[in-house]
Known about the structure:
Blueprint: E1 8-10, H1 19-23, H2 30-35, E2 48-49, E3 55-63, H3 70-78, E4 83-88, E5 96-98, H4 100-108, E6 113-120, H5 123-126, E7 133-138, E8 149-151, E9 155-157, E10 160-162, E11 167-171, E12 174-178, H6 180-207, H7 213-221
Parallel strand pairs: 1-8, 3-4, 4-6, 5-6, 6-7
Antiparallel strand pairs: 2-7, 3-8, 3-11, 9-10, 11-12
The structure holds oxaloacetate ion and magnesium ion (MG).
Oxaloacetate ion (OAA) binds at residues 69, 98-102, 121-122, 142-143.
Amino acid sequence: MLKANIGCRIVIGYERTDKALVEKFRDLPVANIGDCMNRVTAVHQDIRPMNNTPLLGTAFTVKVPQGDNLMFHKAMDLAQPGDIIVIDAGGMKNRAILGELMINYCKIRGVAGVVVDGSIRDYDSISQMDFPVYARGVNPNGPYKNGPGEIGTVISFGGQIVSPGDIVVGDADGIVFIRPKEAEALAEKVKAVSEKEKDIMETMKTDGTYNRPWVDEKLQEIDCQYVNLTNGEV
Ligand SMILES: O=C([O-])CC(=O)C(=O)O
Ligand SMILES: [Mg+2]
């Protein structure tokens, strides 16, 4: 019978996502990516960037129990360059899962970023680093190191599901996860939207116009009442 120590296991050897595919999302705004995923895939808005470094790489997943970082310590040694360590810490903010020592070690190892659905500490130092870190909160209470936890399994992060190898993109607005199989087509869609937005902005700056016929069409469709107080017209 297969040994199954659910909740305390380390799964390694998953296929890393093609770097060229990941690069297709470089500099694409997370808001535009989210729009092309029907506006329902961003992680919870309370998970915020701790500095100004954009985030791009593939998910190396970790799940920890409340306030414990044993599995993150192991993950730092197992992650490969280009991986983003994505930690499901249950959204708990009352204890930091990581701090500046761990983040500096991740950076030295070539990890592409660390995101935690929980808290960090050593904010002063992390906020000045050019290494992307996202978290739900900041708390000086340090982590326990007893386990259990999981590495390399499908986890929940900020209300979204993420699997090892999913593409992770983050900017000042937030984070989205992208399934590698859907990435190629999605990147094309997002590029087209971003180009269109650039054109809109250009026209706005040169002509002072912002063409949106759909606004009046929608108001008509929902039978919006107009009242003109200057002449009493209804
Ligand atoms: O002590 C810890 O486990 C976390 C921490 O503050 C650091 O990495 O600097
Ligand atoms: Mg520290």
